[in-house]
Write a structure and sequence with these properties.
By secondary structure, the protein is of the alpha/beta class. The protein contains 11 helices and 7 strands. A hairpin with a 3-residue loop joins strand 1 and strand 2. The protein has 2 domains: 69 residues, Arc Repressor Mutant, subunit A; 189 residues, P-loop containing nucleotide triphosphate hydrolases (Rossmann fold).
Length: 283
């Protein structure tokens, strides 16, 4: 990547941004109960901030009860709820479709919802990435290509077809499902929406569409943090990439908005509100 790595955004204090990202990782299960966090200096290097900023972020997480700090013992994640097994059964299957731009926090929200409900989480990239990368290489393209006409016309439709098939198979078994993918084109296509609604209505399943909003500065932080090879082109010229997206976009179907900006409410809290809404409508 040309030039320096983009730094954290300044729309909110740096220590709050670091704390939010670590909080999301704990709530999503990426950081496990009892796991030792890296040293202060290692975290400062990772986030390209000062040691003081990391210490302030840790203070926030310690006050929230998510991190325990003891002299000479380091800092440990405190998340005993991760060990609890939850399985929420409803009279008919629920299909939760979580969409949003890359780096908006779709996967984190999906993981949190899966932990709170026990429903399987089906992420498009996790399901299809190895096959997609192999197919792109066979076609003479970069395995990280997500922009070319070849990918958009030949590969991308098959990715969504695979995701739909796995979701449908689960619903046919009576299982609720959480599906995460950008869904940007799909949720702006009335014909696709009508087919999707008809399919799951025929299976007696309730569909809830969730759009994850994230402001551009926070999105840059999340994209940089996850370090995915497919994001390299975005980070090489962030301004050029930003010109191709519309953060004001919202699906053309009734939907629930989750704000994953640095100043938004914790994802765990918003996920709980979403579950309450779905269960309330199911009654």
């Amino acid at each position: 990547m040309a030039g320096d790595q983009p730094r954290l955004s300044r729309s909110e204090s740096l220590h709050q941004q670091v704390a939010r990202n670590i909080r999301n990782d704990i709530e999503a299960g990426r950081l496990r109960d009892g796991q030792l966090l890296p040293s202060t200096r290692d975290l400062a290097e990772k986030w390209q901030v000062s040691v003081f900023t990391i210490n302030e972020a840790m203070k926030v997480l310690i006050e929230e009860g998510l991190v325990d700090s003891r002299p000479r013992a380091g800092r440990k994640v405190v998340a005993p709820q991760q060990r609890q097994r939850v399985e929420l059964r409803t009279p008919s299957p629920n299909v939760v479709m979580i969409g949003g731009y890359p780096g908006s926090g779709k996967t984190e929200l999906g993981r949190i919802l899966a932990r709170l409900t026990g429903w399987p989480m089906l992420d498009k990239d996790t399901l299809t990435r190895p096959v997609v990368e192999a197919a792109l290489e066979v076609m003479g393209c970069s395995p990280n290509d997500r922009e070319s006409e070849t990918y958009l016309t030949k590969i991308r439709p098959r990715e969504y077809e695979a995701l739909r098939s796995v979701v449908t198979e689960n619903v046919q078994c009576g299982n609720s499902v959480i599906a995460t993918a950008p869904f940007i084109r799909e949720l702006n296509d009335n014909a696709w929406i009508s087919r999707m609604q008809a399919l799951y209505q025929s299976l007696n399943a309730k569909v809830t569409v969730v759009w994850v909003y994230c402001d551009l500065e926070s999105m840059l932080t999340y994209v940089r943090h996850r370090g995915a090879a497919r994001d390299a082109s975005k980070l090489d010229d962030w301004a050029k990439y930003v010109a191709t997206i519309d953060v004001a976009f919202r699906p053309s179907i009734e939907h629930f908005v989750v704000d994953n900006s640095a100043s938004g409410k914790p994802l765990q809290e918003q996920a709980g509100a979403l579950i309450s809404l779905m269960l309330g409508e199911a009654k």
